[in-house]
Amino acid sequence: MLSGVTRLASPPEGNGWGLKTAVYADRVRGIIRDVSNEPAGIGATKALNIRWTGIDEAPIYLANTFLAQLDAAVGGQPDQVILAVGQIVPPPVFGGDAEVRVALDALEYVDVKTLARYSITPARLNELIGLLTRLAKVFGPADNEGEKG
Predict the structure, then answer these.
(1) Which of 83, 101, 85 is nearest to 93 (CA)?
(2) φ and ψ at residue 114, rounded to 5 degrees
């Protein structure tokens, strides 16, 4: 179903995998696959565990604002999505109702702090959509938090 592959390396001769050509890793299922000589991408496989390194050291940010842009290749056909992940924090306003209203009326915009930007291929976008869809089911029906008509 999700069969995107990422090139890892060209294995040396006698590597124990029975492969002598480029090796690819399927990030979804943890499979090593020789696809270099197969037009359909089917070849010898070896199951491997996937290990994320450095994940415990990576900071966790509140991401509550997203921006997606299409990046077109030569010929104008989109070939990647640029996903910006950001954080928006309401501005601090103080006082009674009248003072708060005046302070809010004086604001022209609220800044979004850009946390990261990612370039995503269409195949990886579909993989991400599938992952997020499965995660969304854990929370049950969408409650459209913060969204009104």
Answers:
(1) 101
(2) -75, 120
Q: Give the span between the Cα atoms of 102 and 93, in whole angstroms.
A: 10
Token pair of 5 as six digits: 């592959």
This model's pTM is above 0.85: no
Q: Which two tokens stand for residue 71?
A: 């990046």
Smallest CA-to-CA distance from 94 within 86, 103, 107 is with 103
Kindly write down the DSSP assignment for every residue of 10-56, as one continuous string.
-PPTT-SSS--S-EEEETTTTEEE--TT-TTS---EEE------STT
Contact 43, 33 (CB under 8 A): yes
Domain segments of the chain as ranges? 1-51, 65-138
Q: 48-69 pLDDT, tens per residue?
A: 777 888 989 999 999 999 999 9
Pull the structure tokens for residue 107.
Answer: 């604001």
